[in-house]
Amino acid sequence: MRRYSRLAGALLLALAGVPAKAEWIVPEVRQHGDWSVACDNALSCTAVSASAAYGARVRASDPGDLATPLLWVRREGGPFAPVRVFVDLAVWGERRSVGLLTLHVFHDGDPERLGRAYRLIEREPGYYELDTRDLAAFLVESRESDRAATRRADGTQHGLITTAGMVAALRYIDERQQRRGTVTAIYARGGTPARAIPAAPSRERIAVMRGGAPVTASTAEAAALSERYGYLCGTQTESRVLAWQAWVLADGHRLWAAQCELDGENPLTIWALTDRFGTQVDFKLPRPEQGRAPEDPALPNSRFDPATGQLTALYRAGRHGDCGWQRRWAWTGREFAMIDAVEMPACIVIVMPQWLQTYRAVPW
After folding, report:
1. pTM of the full structure
2. What pLDDT, on a 0 to 100 scale, did the predictor assign at position 4?
């Protein structure tokens, strides 16, 4: 069998050196076995065949001759949204076609065997969708196994996919979207009609105030801000004046930033806000995901973009920063409102655009 060196090699390289004890959390993502799942504020839900536990196991073993595709399950909120299942061959966000593939449930035993062939439709090179005519049968058969497999047109096996935890992850989607006991549930199916399922919540629309010009902080301003916020950098900074930079926002407020003296992949920056008269404003950053309390304005890898009015923070974990979280807020003239949040617990070369969405508003 031809060795699938590009995928396997890239995966092992990316996983090498990932710490056994993670120093970060993904609070909005649920992990079930080898699977992760998240739903955002509009009950748009995504599950994927990757988790911290799966990454640890892959690090301990060579994938050998087989590819390691990801299986994604997506479903929007609301009564009639369909379930969609995808097989993704991406490595670092890059895909290449391997031609016709079929999806099978992999049954352990003596001998091992593959179940029936389920049709995959190549939507773009290296990105396949399970034919809707086969979707229900695949999900039912998957309850009998912890693995799936892909097979090429010539009959040779292409890849292995873990489905350990998939049933639990999809049951979670049923619960979050209030489908349990209805005819549209994935696994918790019953006889209640689809019209009993509530409509998906609307996404909040955020009127963003864009623009901002850099200004220089005075000695007095820097001292006052350091006295109030320096503790967020740690005790070593409480007695000294931090170096602050500032922007005058479109409505006259000033946004301030001072980086703590921290090394590593996630340097911390303190953020502060004053009104047009120079008075310090009580400043917290909202965390509306699942009703979380606002947080102190101390953010890793954070930056402000005046052109978009957005404040972005990124926490990177893993050797290549391919897991962690990113959150974005936008200035409205009253507050920095959250507009976007994504998380990924598995350090297995899944790039940022594919991280699991946990919150999304509509900026305008």
Report:
1. 0.88
2. 31
